[in-house]
Design goal:
The structure holds two protein chains of two kinds. Chain A is of the alpha/beta class. Chain A has 19 helices and 18 strands. Chain A has a six-stranded parallel β-sheet. A five-stranded parallel β-sheet of chain A has the order 3-2-1-4-18, with helices on both faces. A three-stranded antiparallel β-sheet of chain A has the order 11-12-13, with no helix packed on it. In chain A, α3 packs across α5, α7 packs across α8 and α11 packs parallel to α13. The radius of gyration of chain A is 26 Å and the shape is globular. Chain A starts with 5 loop residues before the first helix and ends with a helix. Chain B is mainly β. Chain B has a domain of 74 residues: Ubiquitin-like (UB roll) (Roll), CATH 3.10.20.30. Chain B has two helices and six strands. Classes of the chains: A alpha/beta, B mainly beta. At the A-B interface, α3, α5, α11, α13 and α16 of A face α2 of B. Chain A: Its cofactor is FAD. Chain A: One of its GO terms (molecular function) is oxidoreductase activity.
């Protein structure tokens, strides 16, 4: 055999069970087998969808997985969405951190896919690309007066108290006595809870741990005059989207009492007999709270309450009403609705009647929405998702999606986890079936060069860990788990840039 | 059934796939060889439960398991917070419990904890069920 076949002959002369030489690197093993090369996979988004997809891929393959993130810091809504008084929900950060630290994974923050680098460029550099960038817009009310001062999306409000840098200037005016939240999901209840929890409780949880709510927003909340929060839904008690754990928290919220109209619950006891368990338990709790006389202790607690929250049903927003000088929101005009159909699919239909509800703060919590990321990626503007079959983006081989951008913006972290694993399994099937591009791909080395030529300096996971340590150290002084950094310039200075 | 494993606290656990029930195929863990200890271990300390995203703080339902019928009533009833999280679990059944809350007392010898179909392949911590 000639010299050309030298390598191949050596390899095939080895007994089948012989391992590659100890200490060999993946690239040197490549010399011995044309079958082996490192699969390069890219994930866009570092929230639960991105991390769980990456986690699953890393466990079941020898691939390298690079995670891109537009924010400076990882974790998406786990950091910027989950309420400060729900720290246990953020425990997933521990497993994500382990993933990011594994040697076949790299985090690249401060990279805006669609602006700093395009999806076609990523698809050229990697064998597969997974889009897991979630839903960063909110569903608009699309009613007159929505632009008035005093009207915010719940999403912006949550971003503000959770330290999302682009929302730090929000500083809502909380000098009114009544706030109206439109929407009856868990985000609506989070916002209500933050508005109503006496500040001394936000600082000091039952276990005397302070929360990671930003000091700046705590300062604003301390000055709040808001005494009543209405949580308003277009449909009825059987269609509320919040879950029982969050409802219980509202009912037990210190310093507050619930206002529920028993008339909204007439006849419900019979109608829930055959309904699935989660809806049944939730409705039973609502019913009890609305119709049963509170026990002695609870009655005493309610009598001392200085704040109140209530649920209003069958009310759909028509217009935000301005103050006499036209300079801010002063109320909301609501259409009174009735239901057509039953159960989860029931639709609210206007009756023609209306009602005005005075208030100084309107928070719309009617859903999130994804944005299209790149002209090359198909997007369904009506559903607000990337068209896909089991996570394979329609008509774009090698492109996948997971999480909210795939299924729509509902569901808790567990739901997203399951979905991410399913997309990963789909990708693995395609990998094993030889459907992904063959031949080596450069991965991050190609993207790094592109970014550098565009003046973009990504933030690594170890950079994040420095910022993380700084946040925890600042929090420690105040007895909080962390004090979040809000200013991107300050973050860059801390990284020595 | 294959794959005996012994945990350091003396509880033996094994897992494998049972034959098809209808067209469904379960992964099952069963416990035998119990040794009495001063304090009973949590099921989760045996590292056979997948996931545990919230690290046993009753803030998720990823450790959802089905408990064998004969042993279901030997467990203390779930508290309200566990029931609230179980409400969120897909494929909920009468014998559903959150695995992170189960403590292995001697009466539970022979108990079988089955993973719901949707989670049985989702072992993130490297533990992969062995086929038989």
């Amino acid at each position: 055999m000639g010299p050309r076949c030298w390598r191949w002959w050596h390899w095939s002369a080895w007994p089948r069970t012989r391992q590659p030489p100890a200490g060999s690197t993946p690239s040197s093993r490549q010399q011995f087998s044309t079958q082996e090369q490192t699969t390069q996979i890219c994930v866009v988004g570092s929230g639960p969808a991105g991390f769980y997809t990456a986690q699953h891929l890393l466990k079941h393959t020898r691939a390298r997985v690079d995670i891109y993130e537009k924010q400076f810091v990882p974790f998406g809504l786990v950091r910027f969405g989950v309420a400060p008084d729900h720290p246990e929900v953020k425990n997933v950060i521990n497993t994500f951190t382990q993933t990011a630290r594994s040697d076949r994974c790299a985090f690249h923050g401060n990279v805006v896919v669609g602006r700093d680098v395009t999806v076609p460029e990523l698809r050229e550099a990697y064998h597969a690309v997974v889009l897991s960038y979630g839903a960063e817009d909110n569903q608009a009310l699309e009613i007159p007066g929505e632009e008035l001062p005093g009207v915010f999306s719940a999403r912006a409000f949550v971003g503000w108290y959770n330290g999302l840098p682009e929302k730090r200037e929000l500083v809502p005016d909380l000098s009114c006595d009544t706030a109206v939240i439109l929407g009856q999901g868990n985000v609506a209840l989070d916002v209500a809870r933050i508005l109503l929890t006496p500040p001394e409780h936000l600082e000091v949880l039952l276990l005397f741990q302070k929360t990671d709510i930003t000091e700046a927003s705590l300062g604003v909340l301390r000055q709040s005059q808001v005494k009543t929060v209405w949580i308003v839904g277009r449909r009825g008690p059987l269609q509320v989207a919040f879950t029982i754990k969050e409802l219980r928290e509202m009912i037990q919220l210190p310093g507050t009492r619930p206002i529920l109209d028993p008339a909204d619950f007439l006849g419900l006891q019979d109608r829930i007999k055959e309904v699935p368990r989660p809806r049944k338990r939730l409705t039973e709790l609502l019913l009890r709270t609305a119709t049963e006389k509170p026990g002695v202790e609870e009655a005493a607690r309610q009598a001392l309450a200085s704040r109140a929250w209530g649920l209003r049903f069958f009310r759909s927003p028509l217009q935000v009403l301005p103050s006499p000088d036209g300079r801010r929101a002063a109320g909301i005009r609501l259409a009174i609705t009735r239901l057509e159909g039953v159960g989860e699919a029931a639709r609210a239909v206007p009756t023609g009647d209306m009602e005005d509800l005075p208030c100084g703060l309107v928070l719309s919590s009617v859903g999130y929405k994804s944005r299209p990321i790149d002209p090359s990626v198909p997007f369904d503007p009506k559903l607000g998702v990337i068209p896909n079959m089991e996570g394979r983006v329609v008509d774009v081989p090698g492109l996948y999606c997971s999480g909210w951008v795939k299924r729509g913006p509902t569901g808790v972290i567990t739901t997203t986890m399951t979905d991410s694993f399913l997309t990963s399994q789909t990708l693995l099937q395609d990998l094993e079936a030889g459907l992904l591009p063959s031949g080596p791909r450069p991965g991050y080395s190609a993207i790094k060069a592109l970014l550098s030529s565009r003046g973009v300096r990504p933030i690594s996971f170890s950079d994040w860990e420095k910022l993380d340590a700084e946040e925890m150290s600042r929090g420690q002084g105040a007895g909080k788990p962390r004090e979040k950094l809000l200013d991107p310039q300050e973050m860059l200075r801390l990284l020595g840039r | 059934m294959t794959g005996w494993r012994v945990h350091t606290m003396g509880v033996q656990a094994r897992e494998g796939k049972m034959g098809a029930r209808g067209d469904t195929d379960f992964s099952v863990m069963s416990f035998t060889g119990w040794h009495q200890h001063d304090h009973a271990p949590h099921l989760r300390s045996l590292h056979l439960l997948p996931l545990g995203a919230c690290e046993a703080s009753l803030a998720c339902s990823t450790c959802h398991v089905y408990v064998s019928e004969d042993h279901l009533d030997l467990l203390p009833p779930p508290d309200e917070r566990e029931d609230d999280m179980l409400d969120m679990a897909p494929l909920l059944q009468e014998n559903s419990r959150l695995g992170c809350q189960i403590i292995l007392t001697p009466e539970l010898e022979g108990a079988e904890f089955t993973l719901p179909k949707i989670t049985r392949n989702f072992y993130v911590d490297g533990h992969v069920p062995k086929p038989h």
